[in-house]
Design brief:
CATH class of the largest domain in chain B: Alpha Beta
Helix content of chain B: 40-55%
Strand content of chain A: 15-25%
CATH class of the largest domain in chain A: Alpha Beta
CATH superfamily of the largest domain in chain A: Metalloenzyme, LuxS/M16 peptidase-like
Helix content of chain A: 40-55%
Strand content of chain B: 15-25%
Order of helices and strands of chain B: EEEEEEHHEEHHHHHEHEEHHEEHHHHHE
Shape of chain B: globular
CATH architecture of the largest domain in chain A: 2-Layer Sandwich
CATH topology of the largest domain in chain A: Cytochrome Bc1 Complex, Chain A, domain 1
Distance between the termini of chain B: 61 Å
Number of strands of chain A: 13
Oligomer: heterodimer
Number of domains of chain B: 2
Shape of chain A: globular
Chain lengths: 420, 427
Amino acid sequence: MEHITREDGYHLHLLHTKKFKTLHICLKFVAPLERNSITKRALIPYILQQGTAEYPNAIELRQQLDLLYGAVLHIDGSKKGEHHITTVRLEIANEQYIANQSHIIDDAVQLLKEIIYHPKVENGAFDSNVVEREKQTLLQKIRALKEDKISLANTRLIEEMCEGEPYHLRVHGYEEDLADLSAGELYNYYQQMLAEDQLDVYVVGDIENMNMKNKIAQLISKERQSSIVKTDPTVPERPSDTIVEKDQVQQAKLHFGYRTGITYDDPNYAALHVFNGIFGGFPSSKLFTNVREKHSLAYYAASRLESHKGLLFVFSGIAPDQYDRARDIILEQMEQMRKGEFSEDDIAETKEMAINQLKETLDNPQGMIELHYQKVIGQSDKNVEQLIKEIQQVTKQHIIQVAEAIQLDKVYLLTSEEAE
Amino acid sequence: MEEKHYEQIKETVYSDTLENGLQVYILPKQDMAKSYAIFTTNYGSIDQSFVPINKEEVVTVPDGIAHFLEHKLFEKEDRDVFQDFSKAGASANAFTSFTKTAYLFSATSRIKDNLMTLLDFVQDPYFSDQSVEKEKGIIAQEIRMYDDQPDWRAFFGTIKSLYHHHPVQIDIAGTVDSINKITKEDLYTCYHTFYHPSNMVLFVAGNVDPQETMQWIKDNQLKKSFEPANAIKREFPDEPNDVAQTKVDINMPVSVPKALVGIKEPQIPDAPEEFVKKEWMLDITLDYLFSKSGVGYERLYREGLIDQSFGYEAHLERNFGFTIIGGNSQEPEKLAEVLKDELMNLKQHQFDQDTFERIKRKKLGQTIRSLNSLEFIASQYSHYQLLGIDFFESIHSLELLSYEELDSFLRTWIDENHISTCFVKSE
């Protein structure tokens, strides 16, 4: 059960459970997605992992983590809806399972404090050598997108589809920003982020009687809690169109972008969730069985929801010469959803799978944090239990209504250079 | 049914070997919402030459057949088994590795139904000429997708450079040509030989009652009849100790080139405790050099030779073993050179006791952390069981490992003749 308290400058979420042999401390800093901060926010996680005032290089910092029985530190950036989230996560083995150890948690909190609040700084700026080196790291990450054809196709689809909306921004930032970014500017931005971003802190594990509230209070220094602005899902009025791009691929990627107009807090979200399960969310779905199995047209065909921007994506990998057939069959599956061509059995099975999936996510510490954080980003009171109840109540009529409101925005094809 | 409690990690495993030879293990974890079961056969991509059940002569089957068989088992005369799991709220999957094929599901309800589905679909094959032909199209797409993935190509390119004859060098999915040769009859031959219960392990973990679950499994198995269990005769070519090629180049479009260094393990210990010890020594040595707190990693990073893709993995099995180290690099030749240099210099390192204790702590913590995952426990426990090793006791062998043992391993591990490199670059 989640226990939430408002602390000075942040919200503390305590998730006590005996499921895990570990303890997790996770800080989530959130700010609006913006073109002028995105590359800075992409770069900062790399810099923070390169050393602190006390442990001035990466190897010394990493060896401290090793001594805490291989504590795992993750710092990364992600986007949900039109928000950018910087996540700092430390995972340690619960001392119960280690003979003669009783202060791993206190040492871990101290180390986390050092990493976040005492980075390696010179003259009011991050270490410039570190910054230059990490620019290279990020640059390689940015360029590597070209190799992951599924992500590339999805990124290009979103850029075209959401042009002019913050959601189109690339989470790893932009190559052209890197040259001019100074170590001082980055440090200033980081200070601003620490002070102004909305902060939520999650602690997961067997934490009863551990006084985590006090331990976290010693960790964080923040004066005021800001709050994020909710974005309404916009559904632009325009006909859908198709974009074709070519690359050195053997297998073409055919992706579709739809507008659902439904975000996490929406009363129709549970119905959309079930819709997606029947349409393309599970191996039993229409996309999987009809595109992949029945017609052997694709190696994969699936759909996924973006819950905070109100989007639905379809992904498929096809032989380049099968484009027309694959597109028609995928569009046909959506038509069938709108016409209600699915059975009560399909609905019952999909609900069970969707609920199963949510419960399974709660069996994983990170999954538990992410599911609870949906509430924060969606600015919603709907917890997982509530969502499960709503899923159980979804009717066929409900699903058809949702399907009818979904609009196709873009079709994106990444195909081989030889294709017509 | 046997009950074995492991005090340090506070877990209990219930086990039995059934009359037909099937080994069953159950690990209850009542706090979890989910249950997970994995049904593994000791049969993978390397098992290409063998004496079929009730036959005398060795046969060799086409590359990629174990993986093909894995796909085909899900398809029955009247339905696709994925749907049976879906209907019961479970998600199912399967994978084929060098040495194993495994079928699994997870669910938060109707565990008995799903467990019966798992046992029944794996133990009731249906292959027809028509369905075999249709599958060839799907698997050809899968192979092409792998062909577009530079990491996969580099991984197999390295393995190919290490081995002269051993079938570990064959792509697990085979090639478009090799899978086109597969027939229904080949599938039945492999199936009847390798899917005998005595060649399989079933592991169930999660929100289950061990007594009740064991009874379900026994009742299910009693209804089926199998041929008497016989040891399977597998044949592997003689493999020289040195590598097949010291360098392999792969041309394909990549934005950043790649360099991987492979190390072949010529000696694999037979005794289970020695095997586990060797795994820990490899793991600790690689960590010492190339983890993010490693001395070699630090140098590679400082010289700008690696990025986030850098990594390493070691595979140790009964009749082969190798390590692969590397990743993306703007200067792939230099990366390979420095990696080899670090390895060749290992003999001269001053590896102190504090470093040893630090890495041992890290490995202990990592192992405890990994026990959060039912999937990890079930698949690792099954993996080690097929090697004759108790996974949970392998933690103990880490604790027993001495500084002197590791120090001497460090000084003898690397031999220049066991090292190869693989590059992936755009033309």
